[in-house]
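Q: what sequence does this backbone want?
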């Protein structure tokens, strides 16, 4: 170790008072590059939910990643998405009244990926070869690492050795894959802390190639965006220093980087968010509410600020084609899905007849999709154009409260009976979540014990992208009930708004970007009051659909408020403006 490196070893970044000197040095060297084919926008995600390309994720994070890549393609932004191709995945189905998870193999060759070569990482005293596979589009590409034993998405418990191995494989293996493909990142966007090791690999490369440690830290910080998708740091898994010594340190060349990393541990434990915050100067939250309340702190204990860039969706993927054509022909959106300045005036062209006609068309789409998704009894559901459908479709976790509408079963029955309405419940339970498996089993038993509920409340297992699209197109009302303060953004509700469904929701996540008067708001001083408000809103939604004036007014109000929020083109434009404003 030379004297210069020795000096940098013992100065934690948060104690540097002359950090501007380093920033000036970085600026003089013009280290920030524009996006180009050789220097793409690089987007790192442990999860990609893109069934067209053979990768099935677990929820909204993966769906968002797929949408972002598609939007970048439409906007002609040079963009590389880096992820893991998991060679096995789970599907869910019902057997003898129980949810069964069945694992099966997936082959990347079947989805147009090509093998580039292999790269090696070191973990647990072993050399671990990773296949680097690629699928190229005109302006974007998916670059993934894989190997037969990497397991399925979120394999093992959070904080386990195997989970750390997957994250190290994506970070160090993915960074090596970039170099193998002849690419250098213009920006590294880290989606959640599981991708931290990509930025660490870059920092290590800079220092190992001769840049002094502090300049390398500043350079890495200026070129790294940490996008947080969860609200509570306390819920994050911890890793031990012993795990890092076996899985992380063998992949680092620089002694200075190793020292910095070891100094980041407290009592032998580390949360990845703490070091991700240190290595990324640019930080974003995925809704206005999220950015305001996210409670994360740096190593010095200071609360950090997040830039609000609300998630959006790829409207061309998630909107019924005839509705998308209406948006474009009437002028709300340009052909390349840029929202027009006068879109609010253009929405006056949307009539109740249009809404009902679109919903009839969407119902046909839903019926076609339902042929592949039997309900809890193995029955194929088919709905008539005048049937009324509520749906709850989202990841089956406790804070989203799928059981809230069932708190007063007799009240729910009375409301549904009045309109002869149907209620569709769907969502995947994460492997190992015994509490939510138990709750789902309880709800299914409640339904099974009542003749009316059995014929009008339907659970659809194996929830995925295709079913989400069908329900967004074919339902009348979408229900979204996260505990306020726990939903970072959510995107399922965005697809419902785009497809002209009425939205019943708490004021949380991305919904809170708009006014509570823009949708059917559920609120109350406690959960009992929320339940009462929910039933009132369900009754109100039925009443609105039965009145042409109210239907026009409600749908237009939703669109007026939320079209700017849900636009994926707006989202990616916001990111680019934030990252490359200079």
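A:
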């Amino acid at each position: 170790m030379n004297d210069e490196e020795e000096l940098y070893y013992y100065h934690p970044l948060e104690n540097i008072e002359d950090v501007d000197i380093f920033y000036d040095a970085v600026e003089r060297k013009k280290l920030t590059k524009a996006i180009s084919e050789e220097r793409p926008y690089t987007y790192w995600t442990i999860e990609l939910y893109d069934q067209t390309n053979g990768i099935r994720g677990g929820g909204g994070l993966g769906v968002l990643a797929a949408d972002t890549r598609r939007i970048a393609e439409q906007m002609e932004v040079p963009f590389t998405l880096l992820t893991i191709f998991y060679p096995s995945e789970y599907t869910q189905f019902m057997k003898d009244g129980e949810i069964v998870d069945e694992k099966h193999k997936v082959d990347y060759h079947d989805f147009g990926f090509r093998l580039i070569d292999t790269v090696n990482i070191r973990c647990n005293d072993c050399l671990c070869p990773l296949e680097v596979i690629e699928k190229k589009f005109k302006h974007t590409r998916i670059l993934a690492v894989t190997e037969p034993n990497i397991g399925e998405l979120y394999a093992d418990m959070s904080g386990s050795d195997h989970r750390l191995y997957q994250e190290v494989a994506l970070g160090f293996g993915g960074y090596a894959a970039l170099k193998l493909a002849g690419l250098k990142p213009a920006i590294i966007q880290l989606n959640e802390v599981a991708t931290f090791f990509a930025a660490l690999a870059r920092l290590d490369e800079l220092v190992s190639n001769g840049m002094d440690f502090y300049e390398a830290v500043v350079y890495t910080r200026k070129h790294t965006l940490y996008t947080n998708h969860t609200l509570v740091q306390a819920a994050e898994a911890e890793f031990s220093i012993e795990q890092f010594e076996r899985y992380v340190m063998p992949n680092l060349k620089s002694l200075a980087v190793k020292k910095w990393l070891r100094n980041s541990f407290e009592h032998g434990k580390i949360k990845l968010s703490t070091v991700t915050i240190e290595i990324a100067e640019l930080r974003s939250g995925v809704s206005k509410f999220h950015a305001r309340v996210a409670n994360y702190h740096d190593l010095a204990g200071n609360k950090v600020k997040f830039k609000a860039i609300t998630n959006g969706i790829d409207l061309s993927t998630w909107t019924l084609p005839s509705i998308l054509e209406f948006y474009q022909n009437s002028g709300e959106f340009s052909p390349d899905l840029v929202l027009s300045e006068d879109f609010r005036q253009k929405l006056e062209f949307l009539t109740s007849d249009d809404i009902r006609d679109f919903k009839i068309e969407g119902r046909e789409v839903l019926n076609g999709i339902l042929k592949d998704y039997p309900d809890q009894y193995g029955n194929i559901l088919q709905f008539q154009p005048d049937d009324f459908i509520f749906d709850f479709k989202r990841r089956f976790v406790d804070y989203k409260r799928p059981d809230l509408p069932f708190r007063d079963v007799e009240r729910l029955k009375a409301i549904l009976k009045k309109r002869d309405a149907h209620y569709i419940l769907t969502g995947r339970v994460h492997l190992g979540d015994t509490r939510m498996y138990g709750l789902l089993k309880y709800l299914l038993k409640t339904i099974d014990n009542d003749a009316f509920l059995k014929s009008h409340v339907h659970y659809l297992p194996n929830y995925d992208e295709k079913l989400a699209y069908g329900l967004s197109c074919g339902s009348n009302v979408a229900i979204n009930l996260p505990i306020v303060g726990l939903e970072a953004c959510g995107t399922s509700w965005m697809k419902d708004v785009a497809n002209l469904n009425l939205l019943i929701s708490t004021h949380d996540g991305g919904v809170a970007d708009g006014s509570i008067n823009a949708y059917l708001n559920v609120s109350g001083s406690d959960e009992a009051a929320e339940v009462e408000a929910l039933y009132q809103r369900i009754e109100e939604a039925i009443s609105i659909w039965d009145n042409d004036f109210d239907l026009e007014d409600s749908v237009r109000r939703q669109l007026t408020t939320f079209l700017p929020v849900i636009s994926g083109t707006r989202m990616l434009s916001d990111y680019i403006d934030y990252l490359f404003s200079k």
